[in-house]
């Protein structure tokens, strides 16, 4: 059963809060932060899971972040955040529509720059993921974003728990001969019977009148 959030700074030199992190200071410190977060505290992840799944019973997401400051010959050092996260999440199988537990893993390097303008320019001209530095950075929102992007497009069982071919193409039931024999014959139309009687009666009267003297 999932427990509450847990995180720790491996080097324990400074406490960094994952929801309000001075990301620049964290990267420059060279520390490692790791922890677990219940899936119930990641609502956008929960929206993509199997309907009716009890998120309180899903194992928490495990994550780890580390800062890297890479010196440059010219200009300031490049600041990187290395993120790893993993979870086993209950999705809805796209074949049988039953829950299926699938692993989701994230491994990313994200570069941080001074402001939004610089982030937008670098993001448009390079393949790197680029974000702006913040002293109130929400690490858990980043983890949630990355988990959503790593989710399987078409979650499926390797082998579904039900026979899908039989379920989708059921064999027609065999006719019960006994029941068929018991079906009553169709009743004659009463108006047709009445018309026949009238016709027959008129003929008899005509014949009788011809024979009488």
Question: Could you describe the 3D structure shown?
Answer:
The structure is a single chain. With 213 residues, the protein is of the alpha+beta class. The chain has helices spanning 23-29, 43-47, 116-125, 139-150, 164-168, 177-181, 190-211; strands at residues 6-9, 32-37, 61-70, 78-92, 99-113, 129-132. Strands 1-2-3-4-5-6 form a six-stranded mixed β-sheet. The radius of gyration is 38 Å and the shape is elongated. The mean pLDDT is 82.
- Strands side by side in the biggest sheet: 1-2-3-4-5-6
* Main sheet specs: 6 strands, mixed
The secondary-structure element order is EHEHEEEHEHHHH
Which percent range describes the beta-strand content?
Answer: 25-35%
Query: What structural class is derived from the secondary structure elements?
Result: alpha+beta
Shape: elongated
Précis, in short:
With 213 residues, this protein is of the alpha+beta class. It has helices at 23-29, 43-47, 116-125, 139-150, 164-168, 177-181, 190-211, and strands spanning 6-9, 32-37, 61-70, 78-92, 99-113, 129-132.
Describe how the helices and strands are arranged:
Elements: E1 6-9, H1 23-29, E2 32-37, H2 43-47, E3 61-70, E4 78-92, E5 99-113, H3 116-125, E6 129-132, H4 139-150, H5 164-168, H6 177-181, H7 190-211
Parallel strand pairs: 5-6
Antiparallel strand pairs: 1-2, 2-3, 3-4, 4-5
Keywords:
alpha+beta, 213 residues, six-stranded mixed beta sheet, 7 helices, single chain
């Amino acid at each position: 059963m999932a427990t509450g959030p847990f995180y720790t700074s491996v080097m324990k030199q400074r406490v960094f809060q994952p929801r309000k992190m001075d990301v620049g200071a964290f990267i420059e410190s060279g520390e490692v932060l790791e922890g677990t977060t219940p899936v119930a505290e990641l609502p956008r992840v929960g929206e993509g899971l199997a309907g009716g799944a009890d998120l309180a019973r899903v194992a928490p997401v495990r994550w780890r972040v580390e800062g890297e400051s890479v010196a440059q010959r010219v200009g300031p050092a490049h600041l990187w955040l290395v993120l790893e996260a993993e979870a086993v999440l209950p999705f809805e199988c796209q074949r049988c529509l039953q829950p299926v537990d699938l692993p989701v893993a994230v491994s990313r390097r994200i570069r941080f720059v001074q402001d939004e303008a610089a982030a937008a320019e670098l993001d448009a001209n390079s393949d790197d993921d680029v974000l702006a530095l913040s002293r109130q950075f929400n690490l858990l929102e980043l983890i949630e974003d990355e988990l959503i992007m790593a989710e399987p497009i078409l979650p499926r069982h390797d082998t579904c728990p039900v026979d899908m071919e039989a379920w989708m193409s059921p064999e027609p039931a065999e006719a019960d001969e006994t029941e068929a024999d018991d079906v009553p014959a169709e009743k004659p139309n009463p108006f047709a019977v009445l018309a026949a009687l009238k016709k027959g009666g008129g003929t008899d009267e005509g014949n009788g009148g011809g024979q009488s003297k």
